[in-house]
Amino acid sequence: MSIDVDILNIWISPGHDFKGRHGLGRMDHGVITVDSVECHAGRGLVGDRFYDYKEDFKGQITLFDKAVAEELQKALNLTSLDESAFRRNVMISGIDLNTLIGKQFTLGDIELSGSEECHPCYWMDQAIGDGAFEWLKGRGGLRCRITSPGRLQTGSTVLKIER
């Protein structure tokens, strides 16, 4: 099955702002917006904090649905929303990401395996706004393994579900 999707944004970050920071406060490594990124099978996105994080890591690349971001903004009555604050790598539109859990698929010219939901953490209340953590449960995005290398770029593309 093939689906037309739009890759709206791609972000990488050189360091962790929240991971391992319980009780210590947030770091500020920033997020870098890129038009394209090199994806290495089994390793991650070149330049990202999770590149070579650990063997067979489930979150070598993370995707987030633009429709979910828009719904959250309305639900929390936010006047603006910095979508990079979700700390996911790719903002995509055109598909319900939860349908890709456990599936092999291609996105542009890279092959991915949908590992699991990218569960939100309590830090979402600080990064996005009060109530974001609870609201995002079940809608936190998709963690994937990269199964073949390639370059991912912003723009319209085809997502093809293999199995």
From TrEMBL:
Protein name as annotated: MOSC domain-containing protein
Signal peptide: none
Molecular functions (GO terms): catalytic activity; molybdenum ion binding; pyridoxal phosphate binding
InterPro entries attached to this UniProt entry: MoCF_Sase_C (IPR005302), MOSC_domain (IPR052716), Pyrv_Knase-like_insert_dom_sf (IPR011037)
Pfam families xrefs: MOSC
The MOSC domain, residue ranges: 32-161
Top-level lineage group: Bacteria
